Amino acid sequence: MYSRQILSRLTTSTIRSRCFASTLVLAEQIEGGKLAPVTLNTLTAAAQLKQDIDCVIFGTEKTNETANELKKFTNCNIKKILLAENAGFKGLLSESVTPILLDIQKKNNYTHILGGSSTFAKGVLPRLAALLDVQPISDITAVIDKSQYSRFIYAGNAILKLKSNDPVQIITVRGTAFEAAKQGGGSGEAQIEKVNSTPNNDLSEFVSRQVQQSERPELASARIIFSGGRALKSKENFKLLYDLADLFPGQATVGASRAAVDAGYCANDLQIGQTGKIVAPDLYVAIGISGAIQHIAGMKDSKVIVAINKDADSPIFAIADYGLTGDLFKVLPELTEKLKKK
Amino acid sequence: MAIRILVGVKRAIDYAVKIQVKSDKTGVVTEGVKHSMNPFDEIAVEEAIRLKEKKVAQEVIAISCGPPQCQETLRTALALGADRAIHVEVAGKDYEMLQPLAISKLIAAVAKKENVDLVLLGKLAIDDDSNQTGQMVAGLLSWPQAVFASKVDIKDKKAEVMREIDGGSETIRVKLPAVITADLRLNQPRFANLPSIQKAKKKPMAKMSPKDLGVDIKPHQEYLSYEEPPKRQGGGRVASVDELISKLKEKGLI
């Protein structure tokens, strides 16, 4: 009788530990072993699920350094940081990463797996979802509860609230919709654990990477963005925007509309819009941009929008907090001069 | 070596249409609204046709899953140069709730059945903005994926693909059979001319059902509501650069 009691208690506790809900965050490493800023927004979304969080970092080297950075977020309830480090992860190809992630999931039975809306996570998480036979949820903008989320559809023109009935919820998080997690503020001490991970991938290989070098902040983390459209007329004229951005070192950078990218005025990774980057800076200055639906989808959550355009009827003026009608080739030099003196 | 390509096309509300959320929040108004081929799929079709013109591909099969109106979208793909089409018919409520996982299973089943070497898809559909189908098809088939492609070069049963990534671009090499999804910069799609539109009417179109393919399309998610996004209180104007600077200073932005 007594032993039966112990036995039943044991069984219950095993079941409880196995059913214990927890979240896995796909933490991202960028150049030099640093933690990608989008991971911090993802942690905020993950924390809203109010479950223990494990993080996993994939990389060819320095995952320990990335983990040490991540450890400083003591208020995020991170219990464990799994390190999957192997030279074979070069280029972080989906075919190398997904099987390892699948193993980690099979071992730990997470109820939620989250990643930021980066090209890396967008490549890997749907592939993982297919292998687990679950329908992933892209680019969430709000967590309603443990199975309900909001996301934008139709280029941000409608908000869909959905309920997932899958046992594992695989989610990418729209970075600009969640504050970045802040360091400290808690006593949690995350354990660092190496995962035995040797990728076995004969399907794909990494060849090369071309990264745009810039001293200015990333579009996603810039406080101010000066963004140019087709009306800039040439690549050379984009310098007018860089001159403005350089008045705010470390805070401001330059973006572009798709029309400007297609016309070859700037590199395509500057493109803001539904098919480019989604940004939400404190100040967005749209210069010579008419405000097509596709562009607005990428910037309409900016705190303050300024529009400078010669056409007083441009749709951009309908969403701008401050619209200035005028020729950008006159307005920009004047703006630059006056800001220099401020 | 000439490969066979399956190219996926989705019928979606035209990209230039300002969509309207239904007042009862059950969806977006689609009746009487202009629909066309998802822009990313036009790029996928164009790439498939170019591969055929370069004699890399021997046959291009277009596929679409959805209501009977999808046949118009498939006819467009045929007019652009696809050889034949497959319509997997899903209509009514089933179509409204058809989710990327189910579509991926349908495409994967057809890819196997038709024994293709390459599945070409757009990187996302501009209606649900999911950006999942290509990756899931690749996962289901255990094929490599090259997503967000801006350049594709195929030789010796391998595809060298330049892809758009955060902060720049990268080049990877994938073994065929593979899945590639098209980014906007992959190419400039052509327009179909009248003779090819006429010719397309005679090209074969097969009809299938999810059941024929042995695929369960049961939705994994419920859609609770559709809402208008909060409106921005824009529309403010300033008369001069000085006024603009003083307003921004007041707000502590500069």
UniProtKB/TrEMBL annotation, chain A:
An example molecular function term from Gene Ontology annotations: electron transfer activity
GO biological process: fatty acid beta-oxidation using acyl-CoA dehydrogenase
Required cofactor names: FAD
Pfam families: ETF, ETF_alpha
SMART domains: ETF
Keywords on record: Electron transport, FAD, Flavoprotein, Mitochondrion, Transport
InterPro entries the record matches: DHS-like_NAD/FAD-binding_dom, ETF_a/b_N, ETF_a/FixB, ETF_alpha_N, ETF_asu_C, ETF_asu_C_CS, Rossmann-like_a/b/a_fold
UniProt cofactor note: Binds 1 FAD per dimer.
Subunit and interaction comment: Heterodimer of an alpha and a beta subunit.
Role summary: The electron transfer flavoprotein serves as a specific electron acceptor for several dehydrogenases, including five acyl-CoA dehydrogenases, glutaryl-CoA and sarcosine dehydrogenase. It transfers the electrons to the main mitochondrial respiratory chain via ETF-ubiquinone oxidoreductase (ETF dehydrogenase).
PANTHER family registered for this protein in UniProt: ELECTRON TRANSFER FLAVOPROTEIN ALPHA, ELECTRON TRANSFER FLAVOPROTEIN SUBUNIT ALPHA, MITOCHONDRIAL
Protein name from the UniProt record: Electron transfer flavoprotein subunit alpha
Organism, as annotated: Adineta ricciae
Automatic annotation (TrEMBL), chain B:
InterPro entries with a match to the protein in the record: ET-Flavoprotein_bsu_CS (IPR000049), ETF_a/b_N (IPR014730), ETF_b (IPR012255), ETF_beta_N (IPR033948), Rossmann-like_a/b/a_fold (IPR014729)
GO MF term list: electron transfer activity
Annotated Pfam families: ETF (PF01012)
One Gene Ontology cellular component annotation held by this UniProt entry: mitochondrial matrix
Assigned keywords, A-Z: Electron transport, Mitochondrion, Transport
Gene3D superfamilies: HUPs (3.40.50.620)
Domain spans labelled Electron transfer flavoprotein alpha/beta-subunit N-terminal: 25-217
Reported function: Heterodimeric electron transfer flavoprotein that accepts electrons from several mitochondrial dehydrogenases, including acyl-CoA dehydrogenases, glutaryl-CoA and sarcosine dehydrogenase. It transfers the electrons to the main mitochondrial respiratory chain via ETF-ubiquinone oxidoreductase. Required for normal mitochondrial fatty acid oxidation and normal amino acid metabolism. ETFB binds an AMP molecule that probably has a purely structural role.
Family per record: Belongs to the ETF beta-subunit/FixA family.
Protein name per UniProt: Electron transfer flavoprotein subunit beta
Source organism of the structure: Adineta ricciae
